[in-house]
Amino acid sequence: MPDVIKTAPATEDPKTAVAEPVAVKAEKARSLWGDAWVDLRSNWYFVISSVLIVILLVMTVFPGLFTSASPTSSDLVHHFLGKPELGKVGSPEWLGYDGQGRSVYARVIYGTRASVIVGISVTVLVTVFGGLIGMLGGYFGGWVDALLSGFTNIFLGLPFLLGAMVVLQAFTNRSVWVVVLALAFLGWTQIARVMRGAVITIKQSDYVQAARALGAGTSRILFKHILPNAMAPVIVVATISLGVYISAEATLSYLGLGLAEPTISWGIDISGGASQIRVAQHILLYPSIMLSITVLAFIMLGEAVRNALDPKSR
Predict the structure, then answer these.
(1) Residue 278: its pLDDT value, please?
(2) Which of 1, 62, 161, 197 is exposed most, by the fewest CB atoms within 10 A?
(3) What is the pTM of this model?
């Protein structure tokens, strides 16, 4: 029987060796909102504006955390047009006193409440109403779209501030909610046009056509398939517009057609400080700075959200 010669197995050439497949854990695909959140966390516009907005919201709900002074108590004998004492940070006299002996600092803090409530409330109302009008017109088209678009164009032709002045002129008691309704009555048109354009584009998508072919009802298609995908541009416009509504409220209050005493508002204080600007500039200065910071914070937030939700900007 012939001897069997055992040979050692040949060593594989590292150049020709085939690497064994390595199992790679599939990364979970992120949605548009997931990608947007990742982008927002690294955007300093978003970080700064979010911090400012959180502080403003805390001022709105808990103004007593920032000052113990009353914004309505006055002392004409001791505090008439009192100058700011900038070294006493957080004290009632920190930003001085107005012509009625009231603490400017306390009024700046408490004035946040009216402005933020007006801005958020108007934004919610115009987003709901304008979004509904735009969604129905964009989805159904035809005579429904023509009717709703014509209705929208009528309001779009009215100057925003001038129309608000006319509406508010009819009310003798102009509370916060009267101003909110007046601004929402004229401010929904832009949201409606943005939503209409987004719905017209999305309703041609394959997944909408597939849902319709599978027998999905109109309400299911609108609220499950179209609305979630059409909200991105609407949220961007609504966030930026929030700062515009706060500015509009201050403008109307400054002109004497918006909020009125005893409501505490930056616009009211700016109006009162304008008459004393030659002798006490601080009455006008500090509410104006606070108003500018608030509007800027919401505009910066809107810019950050727009960049995060726009795939072309990545």
Answers:
(1) 87
(2) 1
(3) 0.84
